[in-house]
Write a structure and sequence with these properties.
The chain is α/β, with parallel strands linked by helices and about 350 residues long. The chain has two domains: about 15-255, Aspartate Aminotransferase, domain 2 (3-Layer(aba) Sandwich), CATH 3.40.640; about 260-355, Aspartate Aminotransferase, domain 1 (Alpha-Beta Complex). About 35% of the residues lie in helices and about 15% in strands. The chain has helices at about 15-25, 45-60, 75-85, 100-115, 210-215, 225-230, 240-255, 260-280, 305-320, 345-355; strands spanning about 5, 65-70, 95-100, 115-120, 145-150, 150, 155-160, 170-175, 190-195, 205-210, 300, 320-325, 335. A seven-stranded mixed sheet has the order 2-10-9-8-5-3-4, with helices on both faces. It has a two-stranded parallel sheet with strand order 1-12. It has a two-stranded antiparallel sheet with strand order 6-7. A hairpin with a 4-residue loop joins strand 6 (about 150) and strand 7. The longest helix has 20 residues, at about 260-280. It is globular. The protein binds pyridoxal-5'-phosphate.
Length: about 350
């Protein structure tokens, strides 16, 4: 079996050790005589896995005790709607930073629920070359929350220093860069992320939310969408994605084995530096459309001089065992998604390929 160098944007590469553990435990989890797929979500065997997954999130991200950790379904896209449903009360308004395709979707759903303001946008001719600067934010001090997208997966831009939003809860879509490094969770009111990049398979959405926001959230929405429902039941109000949470547990335990998020960050910075250096080293062929101070450490986007050359780049790379390099269909170009599980050896192959291509 030859595993490829997988640069997919999500679902994306998972740590081999996490997959091998799933393989070895698949038919018989912990001597129970059955697979995690066959266990009741109310039984002791699954409960242990579930609680370990919650504990690993708390430990790795140093989540303070006054935050609930939830495993929900419906993806980050469902959270685009569920966040305003819970936190945007009638008569209030929410601030959104519009930094790209995902932020646009988030604000689009919030508009269906209540009143929203654009606190900043860096849009230039339909493109978003960078994140806004602190002084560009026009914040409403009475806002219900401020929403940011910590990493724009399609545009390849990332917040490197999170904005100061005063006393207003900061809500962040961290779908594509959660756990790429340690962060101070206490700076946020709510963090959410679809699991299918850095955390595990699709089908699980991690939500980390301050308890006072859960308690104060609206009660006039369906029970299944109220954060308090799942918070009160440890995300077991209804049947969760048990296999997804199991695999997330495996992924997080490999991160812990690697030395936690500081070690993960060091490796991620090194990988990103290698790819951006390979782009900058050949300006006659490659160009990154993102301003240097907003370049993403997770999704490196770049262009070649023509779409034909880009297609050739993707096809030739694929023949050399590197997959998933085609840019998002809405923007074209090349995108190398180099999440936590993307191995250093894959990056070494990629940069070697980039140096040699068309020489
Ligand atoms: C930043 C960001 N937000 C939201 C989403 C949507 O996630 P989901 O497909 O889990 O709804 C994605 C998907 O790639 C994403 O990258």
């Amino acid at each position: 079996m030859a595993r490829v160098s997988n640069f997919n944007a999500g679902p994306s590469a998972l740590p081999l050790a996490a997959l091998e553990r799933a393989q070895s435990e698949l038919l018989d989890l912990n001597g129970s005589g059955m697979s995690v797929l066959e266990h009741s979500h109310r039984g002791k065997v699954y409960e242990a896995v579930h609680n370990e997954a919650v504990a690993l999130v708390r430990e790795l991200l140093a989540v303070p005790e006054n935050y609930d950790i939830l495993f929900l379904q419906g993806g980050a896209s469902q959270q685009f709607a569920v966040i305003p449903m819970n936190l945007l009360a009638p008569g209030k308004s929410a601030d959104y930073v519009v930094s790209g395709a995902w932020a646009k979707k988030a604000i689009g759903e919030a508009k269906n629920v209540g009143t929203v303001r654009v606190a900043a946008t860096t849009e230039q001719d339909g493109k978003y070359p960078r994140m806004p600067r602190q002084e560009e934010l026009q914040l409403d001090p009475a806002a219900a929350y401020v929403h940011i997208t910590s990493n724009e997966t399609i545009g390849g831009i990332q917040w490197h220093t999170f904005p100061n939003v005063g006393g207003v809860p900061l809500v962040a879509d961290m779908s594509s860069d959660i756990m790429w490094r340690p962060i101070d969770v206490s700076k946020f009111g709510l963090i959410y992320a679809g699991a299918q990049k850095n955390l595990g398979p699709s089908g699980v959405t991690l939500v980390i939310v301050r308890k006072d926001l859960v308690e104060g959230a609206r009660k006039d929405i369906p029970k299944i969408f109220q954060y308090r429902t799942q918070a009160a039941e440890n995300s077991l109000y209804n049947t969760p994605s048990t296999f997804g949470i199991y695999l997330l547990r495996n992924v997080l335990s490999t991160m812990k084995d690697r030395g936690g998020l500081s070690a993960v960050e060091t490796q991620n910075r090194k990988k990103a530096e290698m790819v951006y250096s390979a782009i900058d080293a050949r300006p006659e062929l490659y160009r990154c459309p993102v301003d240097k101070d907003s370049r993403s450490t997770m999704n490196v986007v770049f262009n070649l001089t023509t779409p034909e050359l880009e297609a050739e780049f993707v096809a030739t790379a694929q023949k050399a065992g590197m997959v998933g390099l085609k840019g998002h269909r809405s923007v074209g170009g090349i995108r190398a998604s180099i999440y936590n599980a993307c191995e250093l050896a894959w990056i070494e192959n990629l940069v070697k390929f980039m140096a040699q291509f068309k020489k």
